[in-house]
Design the sequence.
């Protein structure tokens, strides 16, 4: 485990919140990266069958076993259990670099004027941390608890921060998004199908299969060319292709649901099984 940053009393308090299911191979790296600056760590587990819970208990006694209502509602549950002035929301497949951990500590010690901070992602796959493409994003993960909430989206939830300035830190939030290529295929297929169902239930239009193909091509061009994914080498190319596949499958799934409704006479989404959180997300 890492050594403590400072021994003097902190002028701030920080809750770290985390949701998990079957993350025994990754959650220790995550928790080890945050425990030195956390005043409390809150973990919500939705049915792990591996050693996730045992590992989490080494770092916190604030562990809760729950059902799975979706990403946004689950993170809102975790947020509601937090009691500190500041909240750091982190996923089990993420970890703070030592530089980012020190930067968070120094920032919160400095009487900050912002209500939230974006943390630059560092997607790490196949032994390389990507710097471009979709990896160039910086999600809002550090924020003042009072007045904050999560959107109720089933996937790709967002932090709804209280009014005020939002700034961006410099350190990297490492994101070990895929364990291996098989996990990438599984995870991306699940996200695509969930996205198709959500759009269908909202009555969205996708332009049919031609629209799905065009959206997939545009996604590849945006990630690989416009966002500089080509600068990340072969891993950058692979990620651009996979994001393109997810986009195509999402809108192809929307087309399939609409076709199913026309042929079956009953709204397809009413027959679709409830989404459950896949292992290792």
Sequence:
């Amino acid at each position: 485990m890492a050594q403590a940053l400072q021994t003097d009393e902190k002028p701030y308090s920080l809750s770290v919140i985390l949701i998990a299911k079957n993350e025994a191979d990754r959650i220790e790296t995550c928790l080890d990266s945050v425990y030195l600056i956390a005043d409390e760590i809150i973990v919500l587990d939705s049915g792990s069958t591996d050693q996730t819970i045992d590992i989490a208990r080494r770092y916190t006694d604030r562990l809760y076993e729950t059902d799975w209502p979706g990403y946004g509602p689950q993170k809102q549950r975790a947020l509601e259990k937090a009691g500190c002035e500041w909240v750091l929301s982190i996923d089990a497949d993420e970890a703070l670099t030592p530089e980012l951990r020190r930067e968070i500590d120094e920032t919160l010690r400095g009487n900050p004027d912002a209500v939230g901070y974006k943390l630059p992602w560092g997607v790490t796959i196949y032994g390389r941390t990507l710097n471009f493409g979709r990896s160039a994003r910086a999600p809002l993960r550090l924020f003042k608890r009072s007045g904050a909430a999560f959107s109720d989206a089933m996937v790709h939830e967002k932090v709804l921060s209280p009014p005020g300035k939002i700034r961006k830190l410099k350190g990297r939030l490492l994101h070990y998004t895929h364990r291996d290529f098989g996990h990438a295929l599984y995870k991306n297929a699940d996200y695509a199908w969930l996205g198709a169902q959500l759009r269908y239930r909202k009555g969205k239009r996708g332009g049919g299969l031609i629209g799905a193909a065009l959206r997939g091509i545009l996604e590849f061009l945006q990630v690989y060319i416009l966002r500089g994914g080509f600068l990340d080498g072969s891993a950058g190319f692979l990620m651009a292709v996979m994001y393109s596949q997810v986009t195509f499958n999402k809108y192809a799934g929307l087309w399939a649901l609409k076709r199913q409704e026309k042929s079956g006479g009953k709204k397809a989404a009413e027959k679709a099984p409830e989404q459950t959180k896949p292992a290792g997300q």
